[in-house]
């Protein structure tokens, strides 16, 4: 992959999304930062521009098909293309740091977690794919979690269901788009040191179970994502 590409990162105002956007910007690509938190989004845009990176902010909610469509349309209008889509946006209600019993999960919370974590990725992909297919090149990276691969004592059933669903979704997507010069990959991190993960509490007990003795950092994910974006040329 050579030259500047155009990337869009969801949930880019903080945490993993911010780290990924920072890494893509450092590689010389333009990065559209998509997030629903206007204040944090502005701070992220200013901070990354302060590092000399080529970024722009897009306020919106991945859980809205109309918002996802508008974000992709704005990128197309400005650049005429979208090369890289990073679906990172996600939520995981903490409830004191422990997984809720299934029967205790409020219906509205279940619906919101599915809408953001799983359906939002579907919305973003369905609107981005026509642009990528037209250019016969694209890279899609969807963020799952270890919570989608094994039982988690911290995350609820709704979070686990969405993250497992993303793995299956990405497998099907990869098979459908490969012939168009597009790759689709999934990254499933363990616990990363973000504001969201710190809300789960009892970090000392969790840290004792980790051979390296520390949580992952957003920069670690950026390095992994580099490979996924570069894979296949």
From TrEMBL:
Keywords: Oxidoreductase. The keyword Oxidoreductase applies. GO terms for molecular function: oxidoreductase activity. Pfam families: adh_short (PF00106). InterPro entries: NAD(P)-bd_dom_sf, SDR, SDR_fam. It comes from the Bacteria. PANTHER family: 3-OXOACYL-(ACYL-CARRIER-PROTEIN) REDUCTASE, 3-OXOACYL-[ACYL-CARRIER-PROTEIN] REDUCTASE FABG. Belongs to the short-chain dehydrogenases/reductases (SDR) family. This is SDR family oxidoreductase. It comes from Sphingobium phenoxybenzoativorans.
């Amino acid at each position: 992959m050579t030259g500047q590409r155009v990337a869009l990162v969801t949930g880019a105002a903080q945490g993993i999304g911010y780290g990924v956007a920072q890494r893509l910007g450092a590689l010389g690509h333009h990065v559209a930062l998509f997030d629903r938190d206007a204040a944090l989004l502005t701070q992220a845009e200013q901070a990354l521009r302060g590092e000399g990176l080529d970024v722009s902010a897009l306020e919106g909610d991945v859980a809205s098909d109309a918002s996802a469509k508008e974000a992709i349309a704005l990128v197309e209008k400005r650049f005429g293309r979208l090369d890289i889509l990073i679906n990172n946006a996600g939520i995981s209600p903490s409830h004191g740091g422990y997984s809720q019993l299934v029967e205790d999960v409020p219906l509205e919370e279940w619906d919101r977690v599915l809408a953001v974590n799983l359906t939002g990725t579907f919305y973003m992909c369905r609107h981005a794919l026509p642009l990528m297919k037209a250019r016969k090149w694209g890279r899609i990276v969807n963020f799952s979690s270890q919570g989608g691969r094994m039982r988690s004592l911290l995350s609820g059933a709704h979070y686990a269901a969405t993250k497992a669903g993303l793995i299956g979704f990405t497998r099907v997507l990869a098979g459908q788009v490969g012939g168009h010069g597009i790759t689709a990959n999934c990254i499933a991190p363990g616990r990363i040191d973000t504001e969201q993960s710190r809300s789960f509490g009892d970090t000392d007990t969790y840290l004792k179970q980790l051979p390296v003795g520390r949580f992952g950092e957003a920069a670690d994910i950026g390095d992994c994502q580099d490979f996924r974006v570069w894979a296949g040329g």
